[in-house]
Amino acid sequence: MRYVFETHTPEETIALGQRIGALLHAGDVIAYRGDLGAGKTTFTRGLAMGMGLPDCVTSPTFALAHVYGAPPLQLCHFDLYRISSEEELETTGFYDYLPEESVFAVEWSENIGTLPGRTVTLTLERTGDTDRRITLEGDERFAHLGT
User: Fold this and answer.
1) pTM of this prediction?
2) Three-state secondary-structure class, residue 71
3) pLDDT at position 18, please?
């Protein structure tokens, strides 16, 4: 199922992330698509808040991964911008994180092959300075959020 949303401010992007984050479960993977500055980290702040985690989310660009919360439900936020193969991904420790205890939010997910868990694809497109078109491809649990 495919759902399309429009946001006009970072606060609206965060609010949409909160609504989606409230519906996530351990084992879910959010596979982000979108250019630099599209709002992936901003959206992830909302995901964390919707999951009941602190909203102190920062970009994992240089660390490759940030983990928020703790099992039984934590948010593992990855930035794979500099990763170009599954072999490189293996060396980062990506597979040491447990998807059954986590929600994975994976920026630049297109840089690797198959992701673990139930994957939801989220594409963020800049349509203006602060305007975004956010396309969610996932299952029916997101249907009530709108189209």
Assistant:
1) 0.87
2) coil
3) 95
CATH code for the domain defined by 2-141: 3.40.50.300
**Whole-number Å distance between alpha carbons of 116 and 113:** 10
- Domain ranges in the chain? 2-141
Where helices occur in the chain by DSSP H, the ranges are 10-21, 40-50, 86-92
Quote the tokens at residue 128. Answer: 């203006």
What average pLDDT does the segment 54-66 reach? Answer: 71
139 phi and psi, to 5 degrees? -95, -175
Pull the structure tokens for residue 80: 């794979």
The answer to whether the CB of 44 falls within 8 A of the CB of 65 is: no
Q: With contact defined as beta carbons under 8 Å apart, do 49 and 14 qualify?
A: yes
Indicate left, alpha or beta for 64 from its phi (over 0: left) and psi (-120 to 50: alpha). Answer: left
